[in-house]
Amino acid sequence: MNRIAELFGIKYPIIQGGMVWVSGAKLAAAVSNAGGLGLIGAGSMKPDLLEAHIKKARTLTSKPFGVNIPIFSKYAEKQVEVALDNNVDIFFMSAGSPKKFTNYLKEKGKTVVHVTSTPQLAYKCEQAGVDAVVVEGFEAGGHNGRDELTSFVLIPQAVDLVNIPVIAAGGIADGRGIAAAVMLGAEGVQIGTLFAASKESSAHINYKNAILNASSCDTVLALKDIIPVRLIKNKLTEEISILEKKCAKKEEILKLLGNNPAKEAIFEGKLDMGEIEVGQCCAMVKKIEDVNNIIEKLIKEFNFIIKNCKNF
Fold first, then answer.
1. How far apart are CA 188 and CA 199, in angstroms?
2. Is the pLDDT of residue 143 over 90?
3. Quick one: how far is CA 259 from the chain centroid?
């Protein structure tokens, strides 16, 4: 058993991304039941809804699961308290300083992981006292780091800089990606896009089909000057690009985005002017499958690759 599997008490060191409008109780429980670690994505939930999903997940699985809480959220402090009140033991924190909650959660005896996009930030997370770190490459869907480091260079540099376990994320959608991450020094992987298109995902069928129909060049990193986010190209990304080329003010771009563009695309299936958050590995996702089959296939592919590795 490697350090990540031991840390979370799981069979396979495969963690499902805590994606907004995708990662509810049903998906998290399915991943945990299949031997990985499921995460409830609190980023699109008010505290009362998060509590409902935590309670529902407990009826669906007896295995460990966690929550992913974006620190910049106005609900973050309340979400942390809700998770603590409901005896959640595993916290994946993102989009903010690891110093904000780590000591508090560790004093409560909780396991804390932080998501980062550079080796230097991974080191700061280790100094803040987290148990493990997710290093997410530029290939990932949704919100990204500004430094545009790809997984292939980010993973080994982070591994060399920290002593805590590293979980690789960004661009992983099959057993080959897991094997590559392990070869680069990662002890676990976090996967988003592949699970976003699963049967248990709470996303709209239009969003899932958008993933299946996407080619390798259909995503773009938009909103670089505000908060970088990887999206499938659509009318919204075209209009964002036009405004950015005109050096439009931040307020004008935010007005274009409307109220909740991620919810419109992912949860409601309105793809023209919604944020279709998807990673560059989207073209590798071929069909909508149940989570158990996905994880079985990942492990089978990984084992085949490792078994057949030849000396270079």
1. 23
2. no
3. 23
For 202-234, how does the pLDDT look when each residue is reduced to its tens digit (9 = 90+)?
999 999 999 999 998 999 988 888 888 899 999
The CATH architecture annotation of domain 10-202+285-307 reads: Alpha-Beta Barrel (3.20)
pTM, entire model: 0.93
Q: Which residue has the tokens 């292939």?
A: 152
Domain residue ranges of the chain, discontinuous segments joined by +: 10-202+285-307, 205-281
**Which tokens go with 185?**
């020094």
CA distances from 148 to 83, 86, 278 (A): 32, 37, 16
For residue 3 the two structure tokens come to 């350090």
Q: How many CA atoms lie within 13 A of 181 on its CB side?
A: 29
